[in-house]
Automatic annotation (TrEMBL), chain A:
This is glutamine--fructose-6-phosphate transaminase (isomerizing). CDD domains: GlxB (cd01907). Pfam families: GATase_6 (PF13522). Its EC number is 2.6.1.16. PROSITE patterns: GATASE_TYPE_2. It catalyses: D-fructose 6-phosphate + L-glutamine = D-glucosamine 6-phosphate + L-glutamate. GO terms for molecular function: glutamine-fructose-6-phosphate transaminase (isomerizing) activity. It comes from Mesorhizobium jarvisii. It comes from the Bacteria. It is an enzyme of class 2 (transferase). Keywords: Aminotransferase, Glutamine amidotransferase, Transferase.
Automatic annotation (TrEMBL), chain B:
It comes from Mesorhizobium jarvisii. One of its GO terms (molecular function) is oxidoreductase activity. This is Protein GlxC. It comes from the Bacteria. Residues 61-197 form the Glutamate synthase alpha subunit C-terminal domain.
């Protein structure tokens, strides 16, 4: 099963409510996947800061004094905002790759959830309600976001096996389905220099899209490629710095419903996820067509 | 507004029983429907705020009318036996799955596998139905005012599928029997599904189906009939090399 949601706001006045709206959508799909849950929120861009979301099983030990040690290591100011097992590290955009390497060197047990100018990613084992409470997601504002509640099929129930998967700056993906050629595609991507954290099929799909976009394709073109290069069942919802996209495999047995109003574009595995959105009764509601790419950009 | 007042008075006479799913649980609704016995006076039911709930009015076996005011999730009206269910909204996957008799009317669209494995009764989709509409149908009649998606009537065994709009790819793939009537274009036919001659008996059957589904202004002669070429019924030894 698995449940996936996405919300792309057109109306700026809704931005302070993005976290609350997306949390509500995800919690409504809890019975589609009780194993783990995750959310990626795209916040307001800042010209002098980029972010790395990090995770540790021992946050008290790993996050203590990390800001001062990291600032010293990269020679630039660093701030850290801790939220339970996760923390968001902020530093100058030019220093972000250096900071990422320094974090791994200073704290080998820390895992990188994602990085970019605007994205923050929170994911853990547990029900969506527990996960959004733990990271105070309801209070977060942003322009768009995606979420996932997992019923594991392809790999272990762990924090790193939870979605969203992020394999490029400000890029992330949630997936309902299972891929059958992920081992082959992973090998090809490793040869290209991509790095993988898990044995998970969805991580391969995320890395595939990152690789396509690194080769100059836009989100729509990259999504189009999944239809010929990935084999298996999938409904993907993808976030980029300024965009949001959806694609379903040609068989399209994994459910999907979308709604659009003047204020937002929303995606849910089921209509249940959309029922509390403002103006839903008058929204255009449709089922995305199989093998058809949909994407919106700010 | 005299007409509205009249209809309200009429529904009060029938003592329509209202279930608000914001207040009552889905289980309470379905249990109350299952508790109905033959000859019950509670013949009119109304369900408010379904909000995409799964399994609304599943397994009803008495000839009552159920009006669902909003959109439903998976399997609405599944296994229906004799009731008349109207969804005043759209339906999620598997609406009317394994229906035995009675009717289900969806005012909006239906998601995948509408009417799957249905053995009898009438399913009317006033909007579009998506993929696998009527998959493995076993005697149900399905009338779709709009279009249907790919792989519809896959392995259909008996019954009638009527589509006023277009059909997606692989219509009637591996069909055993069942009659498929499509008014618009068909993207492609599945294995062993072929266009067939529309004879007088089919025109009459189709007119009856359109009448039962409340379709007006559409003539049976506007449709094409599709069905089984019956070449998959027995294994063809010439194909042995393919296995």
């Amino acid at each position: 099963m698995c449940g996936i949601v996405g919300l792309f706001l057109k109306d700026k006045s809704l931005e302070p409510k993005l976290g609350a709206m997306l949390s509500e959508m995800l919690v409504s799909l809890s019975d589609r996947g009780p194993d783990s849950a995750g959310i990626a929120i795209y916040g307001a861009p800042s010209s002098n800061e980029a972010k790395i979301t990090i995770q540790s099983a021992k946050p008290a030990r790993d996050f203590r004094d990390l800001d001062t040690e990291l600032a010293k290591a990269i020679g630039a100011p660093v701030s850290i905002a801790v939220k339970s097992t996760h923390a968001v590290v902020r530093t100058a955009p030019a220093k972000i790759d250096e900071a990422r390497e320094a974090i791994q060197a200073l704290r080998p047990d820390i895992r990188i959830m994602g990085a970019g100018d605007v994205v923050e990613i929170y994911k853990e084992v547990g029900l969506p309600e527990a996960v959004v409470d733990r990271f105070d997601v309801r209070k977060m504002s942003g322009t768009h976001g995606i979420g996932h509640t997992r019923m594991a099929t392809e790999s272990a129930v762990t924090t790193m096996g939870a979605h969203p998967f992020s394999t490029g700056a400000d890029q992330c993906l949630v997936h309902n389905g299972s891929l059958s050629n992920h081992n082959n595609v992973r090998r090809e991507l490793i040869r290209e220099g991509m790095k993988f954290e898990t044995e998970n099929d969805t991580e391969v799909a995320a890395a595939y899209l990152s690789s396509q976009m690194a080769h100059g394709k836009n989100l729509g073109e990259a999504l189009e490629g999944t239809l010929s290069d990935l084999d298996g069942f999938f409904t993907f919802v993808v976030g980029t710095k300024n965009g949001f996209g959806v694609v379903r495999d040609p068989i399209a047995c994994k459910p999907a419903v979308m709604a659009e109003t003047d204020q937002y574009v929303a995606f849910g595995s089921e209509y249940r996820a959309l029922t509390k959105l403002p103006g839903i009764d008058n929204a255009r509601v449709w089922e995305p067509e199989p093998a058809t790419v949909y994407f919106w950009e700010h | 507004m005299p007409a509205t007042k009249l209809s309200k008075a009429a529904s009060h006479d029938q003592a329509s029983r209202i279930f608000d799913l914001d207040v009552s649980s889905l289980r309470e609704l379905n249990q109350a429907l299952h508790n109905l016995t033959p000859g019950s006076n509670e013949t009119a039911w109304e369900v408010l705020h379904p909000k995409g709930s799964h399994s609304v009015a599943v397994g009803v076996d008495q000839p009552v009318t159920i009006d669902v005011r909003g959109s439903v999730g998976y399997y609405c009206g599944g296994m229906n036996s004799g009731s008349t269910i109207t969804v005043h909204g759209s339906a999620g996957p598997g609406v009317g799955e394994n229906m035995m008799s009675g009717s289900i009317i969806v005012k909006g669209d239906a998601s995948q596998y509408a009417g799957a494995t249905g053995k009898g009764g009438l399913l009317v989709i006033e909007g579009n139905a998506s993929s696998r509409c009527g998959i493995s149908m076993k005697g149900i009649d399905i009338v779709v005012h709009g279009n249907i998606g790919h792989m519809s009537a896959f392995m259909a065994q008996s019954g009638n599928l009527v589509v006023l709009g277009d059909a997606g790819d692989a219509l009637g793939d591996s069909i055993y029997e069942a009659r498929l009537f499509v008014r618009g274009k068909v993207d492609s036919l599945g294995a062993d599904c072929i266009a067939k001659e529309m004879r007088a008996e089919h025109l009459e059957l189709l007119q009856g189906l359109l009448d039962r589904a409340g379709v007006t202004g559409v003539k049976p002669s506007e449709f094409k009939r599709y069905g089984s070429a019956r070449t998959l019924y027995n294994f063809n030894i010439d194909n042995a090399d393919a296995y």
